[in-house]
């Protein structure tokens, strides 16, 4: 019965895709190129009690994303294992590109609030022609419309980081929906219908049920395989420190998480990009993940 319920849940996830989600090929009965789902049946034929039970098969155990410290140009095994877990369980989530054979990097920033460095980071990205994703909370979007408009105009992704930045391992399924939908609705209403299907869990905390919920709303959950302790604005250690930490941990397929509140990151960004390219890396948008 477990397999049956998981099958039902996959169908439900497809049927609930929001307008912000990526296009799928569900019309011809396939979920992805691997043939994960060969046929689609109507959920209306399934009793509501069984639909609820199917959802209940997803664990509510709290997890904190772990990625390990990559070195020697290779991702840490923790990141490799996490990526495999997402794939094996058909979660629309990723932390590491294991498909592309190129030396690709995906640059992402978490933007919980504005600390005066985002515009400088955007200046560098524009000069270097590097795409990035900025995962913003609703307050960041409301308080800084000029920055958000600039991100959009310059081709970056403005990702969903929730309304109030709660732990998604500690709130109800309905609260999760409200956090995601509230951000999406505001973005669409105030930025000419703009919306991108990428979500990042606040604090990196989640459950399998939360992963399922995010996917059912048409979003990809974006984790990371490279980061360092850069978020504490009272403990910045200088641009050289940021540069050394990031460059030492580069690896093909890395999803890089940095925080835009960091003066260290702003100061090191140009040098990080130049050195990564000197090592043969290419920066790509999350829109091209796994291609």
In whole angstroms, the N-to-C terminal distance is 35 Å
Q: What fraction strand?
A: 5-15%
Count, helices:
10
User: What helical percentage do the residues reach?
Assistant: 25-40%
| Mean pLDDT, all residues | 86
Q: Could you say which overall geometry the principal axes of the C-alpha atoms support?
A: globular
Q: Give a count of the beta strands, DSSP E runs of length 2 or more.
A: 10
Radius of gyration: 19 Å
User: N-to-C SSE series?
Assistant: HHEHEEHEHHEHEEHEHEHE
Unreliable stretches (pLDDT < 50, length at least 5) are 1-19, 21-46, 48-54
Secondary-structure-based class equals alpha/beta
- Largest beta-sheet characterization: 5 strands, parallel
Question: Nutshell version of this structure?
Answer:
The chain has 291 residues and is α/β, with parallel strands linked by helices. Helix content is 39%, strand content 12%.
Give a verbal description of the structure.
The protein is built from 10 helices and 10 strands. With 291 residues, the chain is α/β, with parallel strands linked by helices. Strands 3, 4, 5, 9 and 10 form a 5-stranded parallel β-sheet that branches. The chain has a 3-stranded parallel β-sheet with strand order 2-8-6. The two termini are 35 Å apart.
């Amino acid at each position: 019965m477990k397999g049956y319920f998981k099958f039902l849940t996959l169908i439900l996830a497809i049927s609930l895709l929001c307008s912000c989600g990526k296009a799928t090929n569900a019309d011809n009965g396939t979920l992805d190129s691997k043939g994960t789902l060969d046929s689609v049946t109507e959920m209306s034929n399934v009793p509501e009690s069984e639909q609820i039970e199917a959802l209940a098969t997803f664990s509510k155990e709290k997890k904190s994303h772990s990625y390990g410290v990559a070195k020697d140009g290779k991702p840490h095994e923790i990141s490799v294992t996490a990526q495999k877990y997402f794939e094996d369980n058909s979660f629309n989530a990723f932390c590491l590109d294991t498909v592309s054979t190129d030396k690709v990097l995906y640059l992402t920033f978490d933007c919980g609030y504005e600390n005066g460095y985002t515009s400088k980071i955007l200046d560098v990205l524009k000069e270097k022609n590097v795409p990035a994703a900025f995962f913003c909370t609703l307050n960041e979007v409301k308080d800084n419309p000029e920055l958000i408009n600039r991100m959009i105009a310059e081709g970056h992704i403005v990702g969903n980081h929730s309304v109030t930045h709660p732990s998604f391992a500690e709130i109800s399924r309905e609260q999760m929906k409200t956090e995601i939908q509230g951000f999406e609705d505001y973005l669409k209403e105030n930025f000419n219908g703009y919306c991108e299907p990428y979500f990042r869990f606040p604090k990196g905390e989640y459950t399998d049920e939360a992963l399922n919920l995010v996917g059912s709303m048409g979003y990809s959950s974006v984790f990371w395989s490279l980061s360092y302790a850069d978020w504490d604005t009272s403990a910045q250690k200088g641009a050289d420190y940021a540069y050394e930490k990031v460059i030492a941990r580069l690896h093909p397929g890395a999803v890089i998480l940095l925080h835009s509140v960091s003066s260290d990151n702003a100061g090191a960004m140009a040098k990080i990009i130049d050195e990564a390219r000197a090592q043969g890396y290419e920066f790509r948008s999350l829109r091209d993940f796994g291609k």
